[in-house]
Amino acid sequence: MSFTDLPFLILLAIVYVLWLFCRQHHRLCATMLLTSSLVFYGYHQKWLLGLLLIYCVVDWAAACWIHRRSMPGLALAIGVVFNLVVLAYWKYTPLVLQTLAGFDLDVPVPAGDWAIPFGISFYAFTGIAYLVDVYRGITPAELSFWRYTLSAVFFPHLVAGPILRPEDFLTKLRPETMPTHTEEPFEAMLLLARGYFKKTVLADRLAIAIDPFFAHVAGPTTEGVWALPFVYLYAFQIYFDFSGYTDIARGLGLMFGYRWPENFNLPYLAASVQDFWRRWHMTLSLFLKDYLYVPLGGSRHGWWRTNLNLMLTMLLGGLWHGASWSFLLWGGLHGSMLVGHRCWQRMPLYVWLREQGGWVRWAWQSFCVLLTFHGVCLAWCFFRLTVLSQSLTCVSKWFVFDPEKLLVGGAADGSLWLLLAAYGVGVGLVRAWRAALPRPRMDWSPWTQGVAWGACAALLMLAVVLSPGGEKPPFIYFQF
Amino acid sequence: MLSWTASRCRKCRFAMGCVTALAVLFALAEAYLQFFPPRDLHPYLGEHSPLVGIYRPDRAFGVAYRSFDVFAADNARGLKSWLPLEAPPDNRPLWAMFGSSFVHMRGMLADTARQSVRDHAIFNLGRNEPVPVRMAQIQLLLEHGLRPERIFFQIMPLDFAGLAEQPLATYHVTARGALTYRPNVPDNVAGNWIQRSRLALTAWCRTGLQKGDPFVSRSRLTVAVDDGLMRDARHLFGELARVTGEHQTPVTVILIPNYEQIWQKAPCGFQDALTPMLRELGLDVFDPREAFMRHPERTGLFLPDKHFSADGNRVLLTELLTHERVVQAATSKNIQARPTSRSTSPSKQKDQANAKDGAP
Prior knowledge:
Chain A contains 18 helices and no strands. Chain A has helices spanning 6-22, 26-42, 47-68, 72-102, 120-136, 145-153, 155-158, 185-215, 228-255, 273-279, 282-296, 302-321, 325-345, 348-355, 358-384, 388-396, 414-436, 446-465. In chain A, helix 8 (185-215) packs parallel to helix 18 (446-465), helix 11 (282-296) crosses helix 12 and helix 15 packs antiparallel against helix 16. The longest helix of chain A is centred in the N-terminal third of the chain and has 31 residues, at 72-102. By secondary structure, chain B is α/β, with parallel strands linked by helices. Helices cover 49% and strands 10% of the residues of chain B. Chain B has helices at residues 2-35, 68-74, 76-79, 101-104, 109-116, 131-143, 161-165, 189-196, 198-207, 227-246, 259-263, 269-280, 289-293, 310-337, 346-357, and strands at 55-58, 62-65, 94-98, 121-123, 150-155, 171-173, 179-181, 251-255, 284-286. In chain B, the strands form three sheets. A five-stranded parallel sheet of chain B has the order 4-3-5-8-9, sandwiched between helices. Chain B has a two-stranded antiparallel ribbon with strand order 1-2. A two-stranded antiparallel sheet of chain B has the order 6-7. Chain A binds chain B through residues 414-415, 418-419, 422, 445-455, 457-459, 462, 464-470, and chain B through 10-11, 13-22, 25-26, 28-29, 32-33, 35-36, 38-40, 199, 202-203, 205-206.
């Protein structure tokens, strides 16, 4: 099920009403949430439930073993290896076999309909995070299998995150901590409204406008077409699609009383790639840092080793996204930009510019934001087009300037640019307005509260009304 | 008393804030939609639609081409080797085929016939168009000199889905030549509002209720044809019979069974409903479903996209040729009996149908 499917909305309404009735009864409530999560995941493909439950059994058993302190290292290794091997089997088998076939080896190449269980990367990572935290003693092992399973499969975060640590969710499922009321109803409503608006009105419209270009990027129909506007639009599409998903997930979490970490913080205003990764898919960045970069040695072994660790982390982060060498290249590009930024930080000019004030500083910051955005856009070409030759063609078309084809097709749709600009201005105004309002929200005047609730309701209604008709594009991160 | 008044005042202010926010955002959305209506709204905006086209309103088919020239320009590829129509380069008798992708797509009926039927030239435009437009094409082609020995007009349940959703009565051809539809709105204040506000119309379109018949189920078309659709079908085919009759060109309507009917044994209510009506109008009907259903290798008849495979098209053509031989024989008999009559009268069609029913 997807958050934009009608069956999901029906399921959500039923689950929420049931939750309101049984929230005081811990066991009943947990059973109901677990059942609804299994319905959510197995709605289209029931066999996926078997895979999901095997993951839960192994991770729960490994954590219990670690808890007993009898060869905990072995238990951790078994658990982590299981998570990674199963993930690798589903995600990388076609890539490996196709690569081997490319070397004229006689291997069976899987058919084009090889289906990766959706969300497998997310629940595998959640499992690894749990096992490592139990091993490190950061969190105690959960002895109740059903409670652990609920924490792993709870439908709002199951398919595309945010990637949760045990302290974000698992520890709040215990009888004494399980919430019995909706946390911040206004914020929940705002997140849901914003998330649906981002997905249906912005991301889906952008997808419809730019998909034909990317589908024929190397074909004669896009000969001479300037690629950069399409890449810009894709950058916004993926941002609105993924951050919209996260907003909905967090809003749903709040509906049931759970507050989960933010995943995005205006990433395209980052002034460096390092800054970008602090603002984009923040839970993944933190995961990679804590469970990959730091165990590799982090920044503890000198400048060169730090660069190597950064590069390795980004390469593996890229490969995590999908079974294609272009994802590896995407990670490699980000790794290179991070290393490049570290080199730049050592230069005297960088230090001098950083110390400037006034318009010099402002101009320099603006230049950095623009440069970072274009660096990220360059990497998106390898993310969007998973055939390497197409990615390279797309990049080469950044520098094609045929005056008659500068803005054609979806990129020439003025309504899209206007919508993006209006959204940007709207976000800016709302942020300024909220900054001027008193905290906490209880102190808002009734009129202000009414405006806030009315704006949320309007946004939610407009998300339905202004969505493009016809078939809805799926969430991009569902494929990972 | 004071606290009750204060509480009421707070609620009023809250409600006013709520309404203000709703009004402001809806006004912004309305302004945006006035300038940039979404694409799926374009066919329902009447004269305000940004769509442009090459059509004009037509009493017979609901829509017709503005002129032969715009039709020829629009179908330049299909017509290229047939112009001028009065003196085609190929001297063989002509069979003209009209229909959906089952006729036009590469390797489908027209291609298969072109390869197998050597004594006839096969004419087809190579493009799928809505049923009324196909009929308008026939009228225009006949009026401008095309002289086929026979016209084959292929239809299947899916071809009528568009007409079922948007009956002829909802057709509106704009001054800019685009085919649009009158939205189905309630006959009250709400309907008035929907027609005035783009936001309301967009919301109405999101529900799907703007369609002429919003409750049409495409899968149900194989089961039965409802009265409204039957009326439109009778009107359209009646006009087709009139137009082709004026040009003394016989028509065979090919009722192609779809994948579900052959493979999943879905009902054939569509064919059963149309066949008597078409025969009553004087049109010859070819319904090859039996040949497909009794075929020993039914899996091989379809491509994965549910079009006919090469085998499926061979079966279709073989059956069609057999049918044509029977019709020719019956027609010659009738000509011998009544040598002056060339039009296809209903009684003659009934004879042909009887001849067909008795055919092997």
